[in-house]
Amino acid sequence: MSGVPVVKIRGLKKAFGSHVVLDGVDLDVFRGQAVFVIGPSGSGKSTLLRCVNALEPYQGGQIWVDDYLVGAEQKKGEWYEASPKVAAARRSHIGMVFQRFNLFPNMTALDNVTAGLRLVAKLSKAKAKTIGMDLLDRVGLAERAGSYPAQLSGGQQQRVAIARAIAARPSLVLFDEPTSALDPELVGEVLDAIRDLAADGMSLLVVTHEIGFALDVADMVHFIDGGKVVEFGPPQDVLKNPSEERTRSFLSRIIAQGAGQ
Prior knowledge:
By secondary structure, this protein is an alpha/beta fold.
């Protein structure tokens, strides 16, 4: 981990109509750091990721990724909303893993991983296949390269989605509650794949409800509630000895829910 921020968010504001979802969020992800975001449903966690990836516009503040302002571009000293073409080009440097996998059902696992390499990066089919097979092997699915999503378990589909997200060697990978759609017995294999990425020094911004996983893998944890960062710091501090009552209340509910399952 270095002192160079990959992501710098300052005063981020996002609303849907009159409903304020993010209200002045500040957050940094330094290079090689795994930053986790936790909080109750509706607190703005997933919206935060979508703003970072330029999938949602925002109304105030700034998001910087790799020294460019997300959602905007500068022309002759003035800032303007980024064109779709510019936004798409910048998004190519960010990988994202969604809750629901978002794989193409008519493509094999290998084709899902390599589609961006062939169509966007313009790599040859042979070169893309070599990279794709290496990535599938990395997530333990080389033998399922020819399988279609419907032939894979939910955990396997999510691991294919992880391989796809890192195929273009992005500077940042976003995870939006990557285990929330999985049966409990499949969660571990996906968490192991993310753990390997963190161990390799990839820059990660992870929204999750897996508190134990955050405690084990995160470098920093941000607790968001009501669209605001209530508390942040090292996982041992935030998750084991939180200073804010709202954080303590949230964690106690999560622990109680886990005990009841």
